[in-house]
Amino acid sequence: MWIADKWKDYTVLDTSRKEKLEKWGEYVLVRPDPQVIWNTDKKHGGWKNPNAHYHRSSKGGGEWEFFSLPEKWSINYELGLDENTVHNLKFWLQPFSFKHTGLFPEQAANWEWFSKLIYNRKKETPGREVKVLNLFAYTGGATVSAAAAGASVTHVDASKGMVNWAKDNAAASGLADAPVRYFVDDCIKLVEREIRRGNKYDGIIMDPPSYGRGPKGEIWKIEDSIYDFVGLCAKLLSDDPLFFLINSYTTGLQPGVLKYLIKTSVEEKFGGHTEADELGLPVGNAGLVLPCGASGRWTR
Predict the structure, then answer these.
(1) 113 confidence band (pLDDT: 50, 70, 90)
(2) Quick one: which of 127, 253, 260, 273 is 20 to 30 A from 245 by CA?
(3) Treating both helix axes as pointing N-terminal to C-terminal, what angle do 187-197 and 222-234 enclose, rounded to 10 degrees?
(4) CA-to-CA distance for 178 and 171, rounded, in angstroms?
(5) Which residues contact 278 (CB under 8 A, 6 or more apart)?
(6) Domain 72-299 sits in CATH 3.30.1360.40
(7) 258: helix, strand or coil
(8) CB 179 within 8 A of CB 202
(9) Mind listing the pLDDT tens digit for each residue in 139-159?
(10) Distance between CA 24 and CA 141 in Å, rounded?
């Protein structure tokens, strides 16, 4: 399991009865988590006095209950690029639809992985541009990490609000002037357009939703679309590509499935090495880890 264990501003304090107790900077939230099937005692004091609690509805969805939480706040992450180089990333948070806060902290394990690849490539060939394509890019955690490591990033998401949020995160992280192109667009259509234009990328990141719609109502269903889409994206890789990353929070796309997808679409064409595993977050000081989805990684 790849564990995001370098956070200082985020902690999973406890888990029980399909909920997790988290500390985001100064604020404690209770949010649902379907992985938490155990009914352990809720001994941590934070359960009794959170700043906000998201309640799931038996009919689907749910709603936030607020006690003492600002509309917006931020946390920091220290991205280690080598023993002597750390870039402080800053992310704006706010509670919004379906329990989300605007950040998936388990993804820090992937940020660390691909950022070091980018940083080392830049050190080896200082004059060479490292181009990264971030698809379904949400609020830009991966975008700011790649930019901090020295990459030129193309950030794509179908939601204008998410793209604006990503720009705010980049500015807060001192990367307002970094070489990042932002697109509010359907990811498939943008990839097809980039292929026609002959553009190439050294790294590709994708975090596809289980189901979604593009800006013009385009339907995305991951089980039907992901294999062909990965093959399409492989056509955008440069002659000397650096990495390919797929994240999944869809139950059917377990690590073994992601590994199979990447090996048949990317590794067979470029060689290199593919691996896949669960992502996880440490739970307090209990020595336990909360599973948080899966990732498949390829590198040359």
Answers:
(1) very high
(2) 127
(3) 20
(4) 9
(5) 1, 2, 255, 291, 292, 293, 294
(6) no
(7) helix
(8) no
(9) 999 999 999 999 999 999 999
(10) 15
- CB contact at 8 A, 118 and 98: no
Distance CA 103, CA 100 (A): 8
More confident residue, 271 or 59: 271
How does pLDDT run across 178-223, given as a tens digit for each residue?
A: 999 999 999 999 999 999 999 999 999 999 887 776 656 767 677 7
| Angstrom distances, CA of residue 290 to CA of 23, 44, 104, 193 | 15, 17, 13, 39
Residue reference for tokens 């509010």: 184
Tell me if 12 sits within 8 A of 289, measured CB to CB.
Answer: no
Domain locations in the chain as residue ranges: 72-299
pLDDT at residue 58 in the model: 79
SS3 assignment, position 59: coil
Give yes or no for a contact between 180 and 206, defined as CB atoms under 8 angstroms apart.
no
Report the 10 Å Cβ neighbour count for 58.
Answer: 5
The angle, 0 to 180 degrees and rounded to 10, between the axes of the packed helices 141-148 and 108-124 is 30
Total H helices, total E strands in the chain? 7, 17
Q: Hey, CA dihedral for 165, 171, 173, 179, is it positive or negative?
A: positive
For 157, the enclosing helix (H) or strand (E) is strand 152-157
Alpha-carbon distance 267 to 67, whole Å?
50
Separation of CA 60 from chain center: 24
Q: Which residues pair with 54 in a beta bridge?
A: 64
Rounded to an integer, what distance in angstroms lies between the CA atom of residue 23 and that of residue 25?
A: 6
